[in-house]
Amino acid sequence: MTATPQDPSAPATPPAAGSEEAQKVRDAYAFEGGRIHLGAMLDGEEPDPSVPVNLSLAMLNRHGLIAGATGTGKTRTLQIIAEQAAHAGAAVFVADMKGDLSGIAVPGTASEKLTARAAARGQEWVSRAAPTEFYTLGGEGEGVPIRTTVSDFGPVLMAKVLELNETQESSLGLIFHYADSQGLALLDLKDLRALIQFLTSKEGKGELQGIGGISSATAGVILRSLTAFEASGADVFFGEPAFDTQQLLRTKDGAGIISCLELPGVATRPALFSTFMMWMLAELYQELPEVGDQPVPKLVFFFDEAHLLFKDASKAFLDQVVQTVRLIRSKGVGIFFITQTPKDIPSEVLAQLGNRVQHALRAFTPDDAKALKATAKTFPTSSHDLEEVIPALGTGAAIVTVMSEDGAPTPVAITAVRAPESSMEPAGAEVISGIVAASPLQAEYGTPVDRESAYEILQKRAAGAPEAGAADGAPAQQGRAAEPDAEPAAKAKKKEEGMLDNPAVKSFLRSAGTVLGREISRSLFGTRKRR
Questions:
Q1: 507-519: b or e for each residue (b if 16 or more CB lie within 10 Å)?
Q2: Pairing relation of β-strands 355-358 and 397-401?
Q3: What is the distance between the alpha carbons of residues 120 and 47, in angstroms, rounded to a whole number?
């Protein structure tokens, strides 16, 4: 169901607009196809319900930006677009950074104030929730766990979360290339560490010489970053069962399901969650067929705290983000970035965002003033002085320009944003727990699986060789579960290194392709291609 006159929440057919500007805005935002109702044009201090400001449903795949200072209404704008897109039949993905989006699964509570606010914006408010699925990264928090394997994640994204420089990223790429060429599946971080140690050991360092090799110093940096990454608790995000991103495209009774990723448990690891969301997009890009422009997009993806994705990113990473954003629209996917100012987004990405909703910015410092000036220049020419208008916007008001159905930007509309139909309060732990318990995905992804992989196989091979036991002066260990929990770190490290130097291990790695599967191939973002 789209935001058309047949939609109970849509504005009624408005009377003719009064002023020349109002008529211009009304004509520009009166799209013929399905539409998302954003609100009504502000005429001075009051909204004019006769001039609705809409967003074309078919143009959601031209991507968008929702920007503004903290507390100006970005989250509610995200909520109204997400819930209407879902009711129109598009699947939706949102990341709930602060825990205040979960109310999208609960019908809103009516009040006189809310009804009056909606009527002033030309909205016939109805209380309704959207079908919602709650997820969590690696099982940290309440939700269906999302995990992936190290092999699936790939070297480009792994370099981003490990905060490696370009040289170190290149070396990590060689390590993944070796694993791929040998058909060696890397399921978790222990597998990756074991392989790095082998490839820099006396027995294994020759394996990469034909393709450039890696220095011990570079390997040491990668291993230290990997150790710190694990110590932060991030190891729970890598493993099996690996999440199938096709689950994000589900619908129910004609409505798209909103996939809400709860993130309060990873607030201290912002680079991790932003990179994980980029992994989801990369997976979707390689899996989805080309469909071109559709009346209703397959998926609308909201990327909150988007500036974290681009912070300290390598050129290779940025290039892949730009390419993914540019090309994924033909797969029927629209991406909305949510952040404070447009300057948080690289210009190459910003140029791809056809739909803009800019809430208030405050100019308290010279840097703020520069950001405000730059923001105003990103909008089409307007009769309004946007450098004056943007800081004066109240909470729930925004500057809007969107992509029209003929591919041209609409004129700037100063807009009073409509009210969400779902709850603006968090859903509560009991509601979320009930939704998660009833989810058909919980049985498939709820319990982690630790099948035999590179780490276990390498240990088992080394343990079976007499020289490995003699060198260690200790009985052979059979897999991860056999390791004593209280074993000191130094002793464990020595044992692991001794194991990896063993000729039996080297022999195993050379034949790993016949043991673990065919050679792995990778997508443009370095993620594993499915076969």
A1: ebbeebbeebeee
A2: antiparallel
A3: 6
Query: Taking the C-alpha atoms of 250, 256, 258 and 259 in order, what is their torsion angle to the nearest 10 degrees?
Result: 20
* Residue 519 φ/ψ, nearest 5 degrees: -60, 140
Query: What is the mean predicted confidence (pLDDT) over 103-114?
Result: 95
Q: What are phi and psi of 4, to 5 degrees?
A: -115, 175
Distance, in Å, from the CA atom of 311 to the CA atom of 326, rounded to the nearest integer, reads 20
pLDDT of residue 411: 95
Rounded Cα distance between 408 and 385, Å, is 22
Sign for the pseudo-dihedral over CA of 368, 370, 375, 381:
positive
Torsion sign (Cα): 136, 140, 142, 146 = positive
7 and 34 in contact (C-beta within 8 Å)? no
Helices (H), 88-215: 112-120, 150-153, 155-161, 166-181, 189-199
Claim: this prediction has a pTM higher than 0.85: no
Residue 199's φ and ψ, nearest 5 degrees, are: -70, -15
Q: In this structure, what token pair is assigned to residue 181?
A: 């060429």
Whether 4 shows a pLDDT value over 50: the answer reads no
pLDDT, one tens digit per residue, over 221-275 is 999 999 998 887 788 889 999 999 999 999 999 999 999 998 765 556 777 777 8
